[in-house]
Amino acid sequence: MSQANDDRNMRQPREIVLTREIAAPRALLFRLWTEPEHLMRWWGPQNMTAPSASVDLREGGAWRHCILTQEGKEYWSHGRYLEIAPPERLVFSFAWENQEGNAEHPMQVTVEFHERGEKTHLVFRKVELPDDTELKLQTGGWAQALDKYAVYAEAISREG
Predict the structure, then answer these.
(1) What pLDDT does 90 receive?
(2) Mean predicted confidence (pLDDT) in 31-43
(3) Alpha-carbon distance 156 to 160, whole Å?
(4) DSSP letter, residue 71
(5) For the domain that residue 125 is a member of, what is the CATH number?
(6) Could you tell me if residue 2 is inside a domain?
(7) Helix H segments across the chain?
(8) Interhelix angle 26-34/132-159, nearest 10 degrees
(9) How confident is the model at residue 12 (pLDDT cuts 50, 70, 90)?
(10) How confident is the model at residue 102 (pLDDT cuts 50, 70, 90)?
């Protein structure tokens, strides 16, 4: 085996880990990840909207969302819920859809919600990213989406 193969085999899987401290109760934060009317308010990077979100919230249930660029280009993603433990943890598969609607590069997402007094510490983890380019793009996109999510969650929490 060549040195290059040894190096590739020893690399850690590509993973995104993002955290946020959000001034909102974790039960609310869990709902904002699992209810379509809320997902459509924050899902996707800045300057993108989410015109469609469907959720079958049960283990093995499917979800499917669309994000839309300002230029009108749609990006669809879908997956299945692998673990649902309200309000502490949500695990689901995630895949972008190609033009035929088939999954490309399935990944796994875990979202954990930890109570911290009046705030919630959110830990977002996405594993099995296919390459370094996708890792960079998705890290930036998810960081922006979580910023939108935090602003939205805090506003909903203040409204009571």
Answers:
(1) 98
(2) 98
(3) 7
(4) T
(5) 3.30.530.20
(6) no
(7) 3-10, 26-34, 36-42, 132-159
(8) 120
(9) low
(10) confident
pTM of the full predicted structure? 0.89
DSSP string, 124-146: EEEE--SSHHHHHHHHHHHHHHH
Residue 87 maps to a domain: yes
- Give the pair of three-digit tokens for residue 43: 């899902």
Task: Indicate whether 46 belongs to any domain.
Answer: yes
Whether 68 maps to a domain, the answer reads yes
Tokens representing residue 18 in the block: 């993002």
Tokens 């020893």 belong to 10
When mean pLDDT is compared across 43-52, 64-73, 77-86, 94-103, the lowest value belongs to 94-103
> Where in the sequence is the domain holding 106, given as residue range(s)?
15-159
Instruction: Tell me how far apart the alpha carbons of residues 15 and 111 are, in angstroms, rounded to a whole number.
Output: 13
Kindly report the CA angle at 100 between 97 and 102, in degrees rounded to 5? 45
* CB within 8 Å of 125: residues ≥ 6 apart: 15, 16, 17, 109, 110, 111, 112
How many domains does the chain fold into? 1
